[in-house]
Amino acid sequence: MIADEKQLQEIDSAVQVMFGSLRERTLTLMQKPFSVDTKTSQNDLVTTVDKANEQFIREQLIKIDPHSRIIGEEESYGHQIAPSLVGHIWIIDPIDGTMNFVRQRNHFAIMLALYIDGQATLGYILDVMNDDMYHCWRHHGAFVNRQQLSAPVELPLSQGLVDINRYLLLSNVHNLQDVARQAAGLRMYGSAGIELIHVFTGQLSAYISRLKPWDLAAGRVFAEELGLDVKTIDGRQLSVLSSNTVLVATKQASQEIGWLLK
Ligand code: IPD
Ligand code: CA
Ligand code: CA
Ligand code: CA
């Protein structure tokens, strides 16, 4: 095994151990009262649990991978994100689906990714309430609870379910209402992590949303490893450190969606 692989294997094992404690901590914090604040709008929430999780992940990453840089949603919010992609960059979404976390106490995820020189390398998505840990290492496979995932089955759009962000759907930008009409059905889960998991396991054929770097960072590792299309809605390459309108889909669904977009 080459030195870099050995280092990554050690990092990967330590991060998986960290996720075990993170789940326990999150479940404990959920039992007690926590505060909820708004950020850019009344639907854009942050809780003390988001902040505590991000703080905990940062503290652990400093020990696990000391020479890396760390970008976290709650700290980077409102701040400029460093533009360089050189070296190890960790991207944290401490609670993905904060609205679900607050209103449902369910259907939220904790996400973390490592990019090395701009390449999506390690990805982790923890579906906290189902205790399902999704983990992926570029060229080494994608797993759920250590069981390897295979590439999702290709279905025609007419037989597959799609998930489209509600703002994009309601504004019908890119003719997305037609995509919803042509598909077998429309689903919306309210957490990019949970929605992406559904694509990776073949339960959705496509997911389309406007996403910030931390919403997609982990999922992109899986999408690339599983041979899915992952690109901007107008077919461009995604930028790691900015917001993008993103399509993640099986090849067949992606092609059929491409024919419908305007
Ligand atoms: C949000 C969720 C939601 C998506 C938003 C995200 P957050 O993440 O993933 O499903 O539609 O764009 O911002 O803010 O709860 O981490
Ligand atoms: Ca948020
Ligand atoms: Ca979040
Ligand atoms: Ca998020």
Automatic annotation (TrEMBL):
Mg(2+) 1 binds at E73, I95, D96, D215. Pfam families: Inositol_P. One of its GO terms (molecular function) is inositol monophosphate 1-phosphatase activity. Mg(2+) 2 binds at D93. Keywords: Hydrolase, Magnesium, Metal-binding. PROSITE patterns: IMP_1. CDD domains: IMPase_like. This is Inositol-phosphate phosphatase. It comes from Limosilactobacillus frumenti DSM 13145.
